[in-house]
């Protein structure tokens, strides 16, 4: 059993918190990196070491490393803390469950917007994305965002004033 210095323990706790936060924010690669470093600094059979490794198994799964997650859960099933090995068994059960097939019409494909640069000036607009039989596929149309009028056209204010005047007239006319 290795002894963990106070400095290593603080670094491990900081990495653990950073890993949890990254996982919760969908930054799976960063989560795995932080949790692996935290795990390396801790005693595997400690309560905190087991907790970190449970989070690491979850991060592995989220990052698409299911085999690593399963292998880690197999190890954690023999952890000395009852709560850790119970959680590891539950997670292992979930990881090894058969994957359900979903019909493609139930799914909506979300494009990866992370590949777009922040200053991209054109977007693609698709008028009719589904191709019907007998119809020709619609080509995507590019819209130059610098040419789009984004100024407030004051329609809302005009509408609110009109509604206010109408309500005022109705209230006034109900008294006379």
TrEMBL record:
InterPro entries: TPR-like_helical_dom_sf, TPR_rpt. The keyword Transmembrane helix applies. Pfam families: TPR_19 (PF14559). The lineage of its organism: Bacteria, Bacillati, Cyanobacteriota, Cyanophyceae, Nostocales. The chain crosses the membrane at residues 155-175. TPR repeats lie at residues 12-45. Keywords: Membrane, TPR repeat, Transmembrane, Transmembrane helix. This is Tetratricopeptide repeat protein.
